Amino acid sequence: MIEPMAQTTPKRRPDWAALLVAAGLLALGALVAWDASRLGSGGAYARIGPQTIPYAIAVCLAGLAVWTAIEAALGEFPQREQQDKLPILWIVGGLVVQMALIKFAGFSIATGILFAMTARGFGRVSIPKALLSGFLISAAVWFVFARLLQLTLPAGPIERLMIEGAKLLATAFNPQAGPAA
């Protein structure tokens, strides 16, 4: 009698990307624990103070790191598809451009360019429409945060036009007040 051959599945190699993620999780957990150790102990009554939750988060991050490392070493993660690098380059490029321009061009222009480059990364091809949309949305966000909530965001030419327009509107509706500061 011929016995059927036992089918063995080839053992998968360790997932090095997942091991890198595990190392990052462990490093983040260590950083959170170190930062928590610098906080005061507080909580004289219940022994729960400002260190408690950060330490709990650090322990959870370390646990996730160990779990991820075990799964990665056993090769238990599913195979990932090959990623298209061009969209990632568009988005990262947009972030770099925003960081380079935000101080000089202002929030609306820099963030509008980031919006357009991110839209391009996600497959939108009309850069002019994406730029216009990005500028308008960013200008509205700047107005809400900088003028209504009084937070400091970098102002560029678009923001200065909005400030001058707001001053003109304030003067038009209240002529006795004079130019607003």
TrEMBL record:
Positions of the DUF1468 domain: 20-154
Lineage top rank: taxon: Bacteria
Assigned keywords, A-Z: Membrane, Transmembrane, Transmembrane helix
Transmembrane segments: 56-74, 86-118, 130-149
Protein name in the entry: Tripartite tricarboxylate transporter TctB family protein
Source organism phylogeny: Bacteria, Pseudomonadati, Pseudomonadota, Alphaproteobacteria, Hyphomicrobiales
